[in-house]
Amino acid sequence: MNQTATASLGVSWRARRAIGAMFFTVFGGAWIALWISRTLSAPMMAYVPLALVTLALFAWVYRVYALNRPALHAEPRSPEDARRSKLFGMVNGGQWVLIFILANVLTNLGHPDLVVPAAMFVIGAHFIPLALLFGYRPHFVTGAALMAVALLSPLLHAGSTAGPIGYLMAGLILWTSAFWSISSPRT
């Protein structure tokens, strides 16, 4: 395929970033929904603007994906792609297994209040191997920010480690990462 034809198909790396940004958008909205449920006395009305913002961000990210999807599908799959995909699955699967184990251990030890910060820390930590796997340095920032919020959680919540400000911060970190990943040049 010549360079002009490839350019008309879009840019494959933008499509890949948009796939990740879709996940960031949804999970960011989920963290903010959790914040709403913990902080507002009438949360039902607050979910409407959250849903609108989440859908708008998701629609924008999906549009970036759709515009660049042909370039992604035009690329031949390499053995490196298969290896990267397998490792990606292992990192994500390991993350959920570790969260499940930590939730059970912490609850059985009488510290259910530490489950959410521990999960947030693991979620942040999983971005570190993904940054290396995909060669995408901004994942280091996302991971470090989530881990910092998890570790600072007791201070942010005046002793209540499951307090709501950490939920809001996690959601905003993920939304910022979604925006960053589709609006920044290739890094």
Write the layout of secondary structure elements.
Layout: H1 3-9, H2 12-39, H3 43-74, H4 79-108, H5 115-134, H6 138-156, H7 164-183
Distance between the termini: 25 Å
Label the structural class.
mainly alpha
User: How many extended strands?
Assistant: 0
Largest sheet composition: none
N-to-C SSE series?
Answer: HHHHHHH
Q: Which band does the percent of strand residues land in?
A: under 5%
Give the overall average pLDDT. 88
Count of helix runs: 7
Note poorly predicted spans.
1-8
Number of domains: 1
Radius of gyration, taken over Cα atoms and rounded to an integer in Å: 18 Å
Keywords:
mainly alpha; 187 residues
Q: Summarize this, please?
A:
The chain is mainly α. Helix content is 83%, strand content 0%. Helix 1 packs antiparallel against helix 3 (43-74), helix 4 (79-108) runs antiparallel to helix 5 (115-134) and helix 6 (138-156) runs antiparallel to helix 7.
Describe this structure in words.
This protein has 187 residues and is mainly alpha-helical. It has one domain. Helices cover 83% and strands 0% of the residues. It has seven helices and no strands. Helix 4 packs antiparallel against helix 5 and helix 6 runs antiparallel to helix 7. The longest helix is centred in the N-terminal third of the chain and has 32 residues.
